[in-house]
């Protein structure tokens, strides 16, 4: 049994990401402990206004997200790809919550990084409207950023990914197949 943090990273309340997150949650809950957070229900300033030069108080949902990250053994992020990147609000969540002293810290000399979220794994489930011929290429840059520049930087590794698209052309049968794949991953805690 794993402790799984499940994040629906789509800022919209109704979406394919919402359906994927719900399918994952329902299946995973039969075998694992699951805490779900929906970005659409989180209210916080997305701009890290002072960088790391001054502290910015965390809103309650950001504190809860940090608590859930510490609790979790496995993190699942479900997100659309918008303009080759994460939605701005999801990027804002990362900027605001994965702070020095919580997710990582620099050595006194500033030349080394200590990863403060070790012994955790992750899966990123991405949806995109990008045509199939470009889909892997589009996702590659985003996955490199998340796997190495964000999650891995904090000690969350390995990161696996699942890619569904083009979403805007998906028939109900295709979506059912995607949800079945998600259900299988969830039962295994992947």
Describe the protein in words.
- This protein has 190 residues and is an alpha/beta fold.
- It has one domain (3-188): Flavodoxin domain (Rossmann fold, 3-Layer(aba) Sandwich), CATH 3.40.50.360.
- It has helices spanning 16-28, 60-71, 88-97, 132-154, 172-188, and strands at residues 3-8, 33-38, 74-80, 104-106, 113-115, 120-127, 156-164.
- The protein has a five-stranded parallel beta sheet, with helices on both faces. Strands 4-5 form a two-stranded antiparallel ribbon.
- Helix 1 (16-28) packs parallel to helix 5.
List keywords for this structure.
190 residues, two-stranded antiparallel sheet, alpha/beta, 22% strand, 39% helix
Summary, kept brief:
Residues 2-168 form the Flavodoxin-like fold domain. This protein has 190 residues and is of the alpha/beta class.
Layout of secondary structure:
Elements: E1 3-8, H1 16-28, E2 33-38, H2 60-71, E3 74-80, H3 88-97, E4 104-106, E5 113-115, E6 120-127, H4 132-154, E7 156-164, H5 172-188
Parallel strand pairs: 1-2, 1-3, 3-6, 6-7
Antiparallel strand pairs: 4-5
Helix pairs in contact: 1-5
Report the count of strand segments. 7
Q: How do the helices and strands follow one another from N- to C-terminus?
A: EHEHEHEEEHEH
Count of DSSP H/I helices:
5
Strand line-up across the major sheet: 2-1-3-6-7
User: Roughly what percent helix?
Assistant: 25-40%
Indicate the CATH topology: Rossmann fold
Task: Give the terminus-to-terminus CA distance.
Answer: 11 Å
Tell me the name of the CATH class.
Alpha Beta
Q: Sketch the major β-sheet.
A: 5 strands, parallel
- Helix/strand structural class: alpha/beta
Low-confidence stretches: none
Q: What is the CATH architecture assignment? A: 3-Layer(aba) Sandwich
**What share of the residues does DSSP label as strand, in percent?**
15-25%
| Domain unit count | 1
Global geometry: globular
């Amino acid at each position: 049994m794993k402790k799984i943090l499940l994040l629906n990273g789509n800022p919209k309340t109704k979406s394919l990401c919402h359906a994927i997150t719900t399918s994952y949650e329902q299946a995973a809950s039969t075998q694992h402990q699951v805490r779900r957070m929906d970005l659409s229900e989180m209210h916080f300033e997305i701009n890290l206004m002072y960088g790391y030069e001054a502290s910015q108080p965390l809103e309650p949902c950001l504190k809860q997200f940090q608590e859930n990250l510490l609790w979790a053994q496995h993190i699942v992020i479900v997100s659309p790809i918008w303009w080759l990147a994460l939605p701005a609000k999801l990027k804002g969540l990362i900027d605001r919550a994965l702070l020095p002293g919580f997710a990582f810290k620099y050595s006194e000399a500033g030349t080394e990084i200590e990863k403060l979220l070790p012994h955790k794994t992750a899966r990123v489930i991405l949806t995109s409207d990008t045509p199939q011929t470009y889909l892997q290429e589009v996702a590659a840059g985003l996955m490199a950023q998340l796997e190495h520049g964000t999650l891995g930087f904090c000690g969350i590794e390995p990161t696996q990914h699942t890619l569904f698209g083009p979403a805007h052309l998906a028939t109900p049968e295709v979506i059912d197949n995607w949800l079945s794949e998600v259900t299988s991953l969830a039962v295994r805690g992947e």
